[in-house]
Amino acid sequence: MFFMKLKKSVAISENGFVFNASRGDSFSTNPTGTRILDWLREGKTDTEMKTLLLEKYEIDEATCEKDLYDFIKMLNQQNLIEA
């Protein structure tokens, strides 16, 4: 289990537009990505997010875990989250 938070400089619109004010970068994400970003902002752990995703979507646990960690890895590479 790990605890990551979305940086305060990151803004997220309801339609999935993400803007990192500290770097001037922006990108778009799908509704699931937006939900994960919101959960990170709320301080949810990876275990909590995985449970919520498994409850919402018809997906097996291995795929859920891989996709979640791949997304979080991308967020970390884009400097959008912090420990």
What does this structure look like?
This protein is an alpha+beta fold. The protein has a single domain, classed as Arc Repressor Mutant, subunit A. Helices cover 48% and strands 18% of the residues. It contains 3 helices and 5 strands. The strands form 2 sheets. A 3-stranded antiparallel sheet has the order 2-3-4, covered by helices on one side. A two-stranded antiparallel ribbon has the order 1-5. A hairpin with a 4-residue loop joins strand 3 (17-20) and strand 4. Helix 2 crosses helix 3. It is globular. The mean pLDDT is 91.
Based on the model shown, name its key terms:
single chain; 83 residues; two-stranded antiparallel ribbon; alpha+beta; 3 helices; 3-stranded antiparallel β-sheet; globular
Short description:
The protein is an alpha+beta fold and 83 residues long. It is 48% helix and 18% strand.
Mean model confidence by pLDDT: 91
**What is the share of helical residues?**
40-55%
Main β-sheet, in a few words? 3 strands, antiparallel
Would you identify the regions where 5 or more consecutive residues have pLDDT less than 50? none
Instruction: Write down the Rg.
Output: 12 Å
Shape: globular
Strand order of the largest sheet: 2-3-4
Q: At the third CATH level, what is the topology name?
A: Arc Repressor Mutant, subunit A
Organism: Larkinella knui
InterPro entries: PQQD, PqqD_sf
Protein name: PqqD family protein
Pfam family, one: PqqD
